[in-house]
Each structure stands twice: as C-alpha cells, then as structure tokens.
Amino acid sequence: MGHPLGPPSLCMASLYRSGPSNYYELLGVHPGASAEEVKRAFFSKSKELHPDRDPGNPTLHSRFVELSEAYQVLSREQSRRAYDQQLRSGAPPRAPGSSSPPRSAHQAHSSWEPPNARYWAQFHGVRPQGPESRQQQHQHNLRVLRYCLLIMLAGMGLHYVAFRKLEQMHRSFMDEKDRIITAIYNETRARARSVPALACPLLPVPATSGTPTQLCRRSLLQGKQSQAQARAKAESAPAAITTICPRP
C-alpha cells in the first residue's frame, strides 16, 4: 500500500493529469505542422514559460524543461519520425518531462546547469548566464586582461631597448664625426705652420699681425729695401772721399 500523497504531490499529479499528453499538444501544434511552425510555437511558448519571468516558481521551470524537450524531439526530422511512429503504433509515448531518470542529489549538484540552459541551447553561439558560466567568463576575462598587460609591458620594454640602442649608435656616430673633423683641422693647421719656415728660412718673422704668408712677403720686402739702402750708401762713399781730399 503506497503512502498517501501530500498537498504538493497532489498538485503536481493533478497538473500532469490535466496537462498535455504528447509533445504536439504541449507546443500547441497539430501533428502535420511544419518545422517552421514548430519553431514559432516554441518561441511563443518559451516567452510565456521562461524561468526568468518568475525565478521562485519551480512549476514554471519544469514546464519550460518539458517545452524544451518537446522542441528538441520535434525540431529534428529523425527524432520526430520515431516519435510519430510511436504514436501511431499505440505504444505509450514519452510523456513530457519523463525523458530523464531521477538523479541523486550529488549527481544533480555535480551536473547542475542554469534553468534556462536548454532554452539558450536552441540558439547557437549564445551561452546561458548561470553562476558557473559567469565564473568561467570572469576567469576568461582575467586571462585576457593578463595577456594584454604582458603584451603591453613587453612592447614598452622593446621600445625602451630600441631607443637606447639608437641613442648609443647616434652618439658613436657623432663622436666619430668629431674625431675626423678634429684630425683634419689639426693636419691643416700643421701644414699652414710649415709653409713660412720653408719659404723664408733665413729671415726673422716680425711680431706683427697677419697670416704667415703676409708676414713672409713683408719680410722679403723689408730685406730688399735694406739691400737697396746699403747699395746706395756704398755708391755715395767715393764721391764724399774725393770732395774731402781733392787730388793734387
């Protein structure tokens, strides 16, 4: 003899007895409906039975799960054909909400998924936002942030090293250029100093202003003037002697 059903069990039992008997009735479509009609019916029903409309209502969640199961079966041609064959054979079809066996509390906790996971599974590329998915998304965002920071720091380090290397190369180039210019200047200056010594080896260079070439020319001119004066004095000396001492 079974145990008497409490008020919650009676409510659920009456709900299943008065509910739809197959997936077509659950979606509100006739057995000959097209795949597009099944899809539109599922979207319309899912808006009404979505768990987010009343998170504290467990009945709404169970009805939404049944709706998702019905759409998964009827939206695929192979599973729908098998389901229709089961209905035509007179065998008891799989009732809404009875597709999965009961699980223990540990299994339910270990394989927990958000209430609306099956709803979002109909849309490819859209992930349900449950606690685990939010945590995974948060960890993924942190990894992306770390990678971005590492790339930024590596770029700054490479930029600094390249700048220092370029600065060192520029400094070496300028030092070499200064060395070459200084060597050319010193060599030119030494050559300029050696020119007057070769052109006028016996004449003293007066301490006057001017370039070495000008000083050399000035010394030569002064030497010629001195020679002319000495020659003039030598020519005038016999005449002076004759005047002072006349011949007998």
How would you describe what is shown here?
With 248 residues, the protein is mainly alpha-helical. The chain has two domains: 10-100 and 112-129, Helix Hairpins; 130-201 and 210-216. It is built from nine helices and no strands. α8 runs parallel beside α9. Mean pLDDT is 73; it is low at 1-17, 99-112 and 197-203.
Overview in brief:
With about 250 residues, this protein is mostly helical. It has nine helices and no strands.
Please identify which CATH superfamily of the largest domain we are dealing with: DnaJ domain
In N-to-C order, the SSE pattern is HHHHHHHHH
> Number of helical runs?
9
Beta-strand level of the residues, as a percent range?
A: under 5%
User: How far from one another are the termini?
Assistant: 196 Å
**Radius of gyration, Cα only, in angstroms?**
58 Å
- Label the structural class: mainly alpha
Number of strands: 0
Overall geometry comes to: rod-shaped
Structure keywords:
DnaJ_domain, 248 residues, 9 helices, Helix Hairpins, disordered N terminus, mainly alpha, J_dom_sf, 2 domains, single chain
Strand and helix map with partners:
Layout: H1 7-18, H2 23-27, H3 35-49, H4 58-74, H5 77-88, H6 105-110, H7 117-121, H8 131-199, H9 212-244
Helix pairs in contact: 3-4, 8-9
